[in-house]
Design brief:
Helix content: 25-40%
Low-confidence stretches: 38-48
Strand content: 25-35%
Order of helices and strands: EHEHEHEHEEEHEHEHEEHEHEE
Distance between the termini: 60 Å
Largest sheet: 7 strands, mixed
Structural class: alpha/beta
Radius of gyration: 19 Å
Number of helices: 9
Mean pLDDT: 84
Number of strands: 14
Length: 303
């Protein structure tokens, strides 16, 4: 079997979005991003240079369907620029030979533990310790592999809520990981919204794999100020800073008085800007997590 290796350089703010696009390609699309530095021998630079770009890699079978897959990937990467994310480089394509790639790409992936939540790839069996809750989720499927700091931040803040509200709205649900985690932690019902139909399909599939399809309602769409549905006691919004600022009034309107918003996807330099926008919409600061250059927030609807 021959494969085409797709690589692209991306700013850290765009890493998870590019990973989601690569995740649509299938095999090998979830290779961990590698940070690029001027001196490959300087490990300290990897940890301390948030401006260094990342190299993301995916693989697609070199067959008649490859040109269309590459074209759609290029188009999706181009559209990402509309969200104001950091720079994304040109997509590069090269042929590689690896007859065992369909299994080789899985090597190196292990269950991810974030507090009580354990994210387990579908091909692995992982024993759970007392109190741990498993989520079966393959890397590379839409947003939310559990590896990105924004996902970890949301999952950590989510576990600080007690008791878990019965209803939850997951805005920009992606893979559905946050909504599924809310259900595992005690929510009765989750509505997941995403503007991308592929993400909605992935969220439904992941909810089904986890035995939660009847309690997870994934739909194509976004939040609106004049929503016909009652506001939710818990809203999750792992987006990007620009979208959180734009959607702040709608996110607040969909959070009931006294309810909780968990927001992430916020690059640190824009943290105060997002806080100000959410505050102006009636949400009060409760808690904050910083993971490298990423910020996750817990807010409460006060007005």
């Amino acid at each position: 079997m021959r494969w085409l290796e797709l690589t692209v350089e991306a700013h850290s703010e765009a890493v998870e979005a590019v990973s989601e696009i690569f995740g649509r390609l299938g095999h090998g699309a979830a290779v961990r991003p590698t940070q690029l530095i001027h001196d490959p021998g300087d490990e300290l630079a990897v940890r301390e240079d948030p401006s260094a770009p990342y190299l993301l890699t995916a693989h697609v079978a070199d067959d008649p369907g490859a040109p269309a897959a590459i074209e759609s990937t290029e188009r999706a990467l181009w559209h990402l620029q509309a969200f104001g994310l950091g720079p994304i480089g040109k997509l590069r394509v090269a042929r590689v030979d690896d007859s065992d790639w369909t299994e080789a790409w899985k090597r190196g992936y292990a269950p991810q533990r974030i507090g009580r939540i354990v994210i387990v790839p579908s091909w692995l069996d992982e024993p759970m310790a007392p109190g741990e809750l498993s989520i079966r989720l393959d890397p590379g499927m839409a947003f939310g592999t559990g590896l990105h700091p924004t996902t970890r931040g949301c999952l950590t803040l989510l576990q600080r809520i007690g008791p878990m509200p019965d209803r939850c709205l997951d805005v920009g649900t992606g893979s559905g990981i946050l909504g599924i985690a809310a259900l595992r932690l005690g929510a009765d019902r989750v509505v997941g919204l995403d503007t991308d139909s592929i993400a909605v399909t992935a969220a439904i599939a992941n909810a089904t794999v986890n035995g939660l399809a009847d309690r997870f309602d994934a739909r194509r769409g976004t939040v609106m100020v004049d929503s016909a549905e009652a506001p939710y006691p818990l809203v999750l919004a792992n987006l990007v800073a620009s979208l959180l600022i734009e959607l702040a009034p709608a996110v607040a309107a969909n959070t009931e008085l006294g309810g909780t918003l968990i927001a992430s996807g916020i690059i640190e330099p824009r943290g105060n800007e997002v806080l100000a926008s959410l505050g102006a919409a009636g949400l009060a600061f409760i808690d904050r997590l910083d993971d490298g250059e990423w910020v996750s927030l817990r807010m409460e609807r006060r007005t």
